[in-house]
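W.,

You were right to be curious about this one. When I first looked at the sequence I had no strong expectations either way, so I just let the prediction run and decided to look at it fresh. Below is the sequence, 120 residues in total, followed by the output.
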Amino acid sequence: MAEPTPRRNEPRLRPAPLLFEPAEAAGDPEHFFDLESMDDPRELLARATELTQAFRAAADRAVEFQAIAAAQLADPRRFDRLTPADIAERAEWTEDYAKKMVEFGRDLMRGADGRGPDPV
């Protein structure tokens, strides 16, 4: 599971924005956020590092949303709740991982300090 993102007592880092590439650039397998056109290795390292941090932050945030969705789907108060096995099948996880994600999602929904829902 991805490393959790900072909670209320830790400031959330704002990585470089992920800019969408034009369709024609995305079709070129050698094109990646215009990194291939950079000649200065310092500039290349800086931009590649920004992108790495942005992708990691995006992946961490997406995992949190997966966990919240899993917890909501497994909520026993729902008449249409899903079992961990059902959630695992939908998300292409193992059942054990689905159980951990449900618990992680419940923790997120309770909030980091236990006072209530976290406004995801």
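Here's what jumped out at me. The two ends are 19 Å apart (CA to CA). And, maybe more interesting for your project: The longest helix spans residues 41-73.

Coffee later to discuss?

I.
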